């Protein structure tokens, strides 16, 4: 048997010394309430669904999860709050596809979501909905595409917030379908709906939760959803990809911790999220907002984030949207 060298022994001892604090943190977690930091204001879909998950996770951990809303441009305030916290599992972050967009949209961010966070699990996925005025002649997305090709530059598509998922989803539709139409940004969804009903715009792109009232009362006609498969809450509505092959936008929310959080803590929270997100009441509540409750592995969430950063960087560059 080969004798160990002094260097090998000292190296092994050093590694063990580094591992011991992490192991201790994992064994005592959670020892106090856990902060869950959201980059959004209270009351929105992300806030409501995150609080539901937080309540269930707190029950399973035996410690309260305290939701902190820290809205701000690029999610910077919320990210700083989490990345500067101790990596002991007691501070968690909500990451979204908006996090990926921020990386693509800003010249420089004071954080790197890929390197500065330890991914835990996805919480849910949700699609954009494309809709026309129920009284318009555009009964299908194909009707809109046909008209846009016959009269280039004459049709308008409404979204909110230049650089938001809805706006970039419209930009991606424009480039993927090779169409010429105007994308008109509005401050809020109700303004878009009014514009659609007045025929100022001929198509709108937004999330299901924001459009639910107009869809339910029959004023809006859904003509496409942005995921790869038809949405469970609008099963009769085709995907955009059925008319425009290659088009896909899947929005997502996920939970993460500061980089360096011990793997046993990450694994424990991941396992609990997998239990929580298959609870029928949780799935039903998420579905009310057009969100499919869906867990993932840490690696899958990281891959999704990296892929979206690349995807939206290309869309922003092609659309000529100035970086902030």
Structure description:
By secondary structure, the chain is α/β, with parallel strands linked by helices. It has 2 domains: 33-126 and 250-319, D-Maltodextrin-Binding Protein, domain 2 (3-Layer(aba) Sandwich), CATH 3.40.190; 127-242, Periplasmic binding protein-like II (D-Maltodextrin-Binding Protein, domain 2). It contains 12 helices and 10 strands. Strands 1, 2, 3, 4, 5, 6, 7, 8, 9 and 10 form a 10-stranded mixed sheet that branches. Helix 2 packs across helix 10, helix 4 crosses helix 12 and helix 7 (165-176) crosses helix 12. The radius of gyration is 22 Å and the shape is globular. The model has no long low-confidence stretch (mean pLDDT 92).
Question: What would the keywords be for this entry?
Answer:
D-Maltodextrin-Binding Protein, domain 2; 324 residues; alpha/beta; 10 strands; 2 domains
Alpha-beta content class? alpha/beta
The gyration radius over C-alpha positions equals: 22 Å
CATH architecture annotation of the largest domain:
3-Layer(aba) Sandwich
Query: What is the fold-level CATH name, i.e. the topology of the largest domain?
Result: D-Maltodextrin-Binding Protein, domain 2
Instruction: Kindly provide the name of the CATH class of the largest domain.
Output: Alpha Beta
Spell out the blueprint of helices and strands.
Blueprint: H1 6-28, E1 34-38, H2 45-61, E2 65-69, H3 76-83, E3 91-96, H4 97-105, H5 113-116, E4 117-133, H6 141-150, E5 156-160, H7 165-176, E6 182-186, H8 189-197, E7 203-207, H9 208-216, E8 220-225, E9 250-258, H10 263-276, H11 280-288, E10 291-293, H12 298-319
Parallel strand pairs: 1-2, 1-3, 5-6, 5-7
Antiparallel strand pairs: 3-9, 4-7, 4-8, 4-9, 4-10
């Amino acid at each position: 048997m080969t004798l160990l060298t002094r260097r090998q022994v000292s190296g092994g001892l050093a590694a063990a010394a580094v591992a011991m604090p992490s192991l201790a943190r994992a064994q005592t977690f959670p020892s106090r309430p856990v902060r869950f930091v959201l980059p959004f204001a209270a009351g929105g879909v992300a806030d409501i669904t995150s609080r539901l998950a937080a309540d269930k996770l707190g029950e399973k951990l035996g410690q309260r999860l305290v939701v902190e809303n820290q809205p701000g441009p690029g999610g910077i305030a919320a990210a700083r709050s989490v990345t500067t916290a101790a990596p002991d599992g007691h501070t968690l972050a909500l990451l979204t596809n908006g996090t990926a967009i921020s990386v693509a949209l800003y010249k420089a961010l004071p954080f790197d979501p890929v390197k500065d966070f330890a991914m835990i699990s996805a919480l849910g996925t949700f699609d954009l909905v494309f809709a026309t005025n129920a009284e318009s002649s555009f009964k299908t997305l194909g009707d809109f595409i046909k008209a846009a090709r016959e009269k280039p530059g004459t049709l308008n598509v409404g979204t909110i917030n230049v650089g938001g998922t809805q706006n970039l989803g419209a930009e991606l539709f424009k480039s993927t379908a090779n169409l010429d139409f105007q994308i008109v940004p509005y401050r809020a969804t109700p303004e878009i709906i009014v514009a659609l009903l007045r025929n100022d715009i001929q198509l709108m792109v937004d999330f299901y939760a924001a459009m639910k009232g107009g869809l339910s009362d029959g004023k809006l006609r859904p003509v496409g959803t942005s995921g790869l498969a038809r949405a469970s809450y609008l099963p009769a509505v085709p995907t955009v990809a059925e008319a425009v092959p290659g088009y896909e936008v899947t929005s997502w929310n996920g939970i993460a911790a500061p980089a360096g959080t011990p793997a046993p803590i990450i694994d424990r929270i991941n396992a609990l999220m997998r239990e929580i997100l298959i609870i029928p009441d949780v799935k039903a509540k998420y579905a009310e907002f057009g969100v499919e409750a869906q867990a993932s592995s840490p690696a899958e969430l990281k891959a999704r984030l990296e892929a979206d950063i690349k995807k939206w960087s290309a869309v922003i560059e092609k659309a000529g949207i100035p970086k902030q």
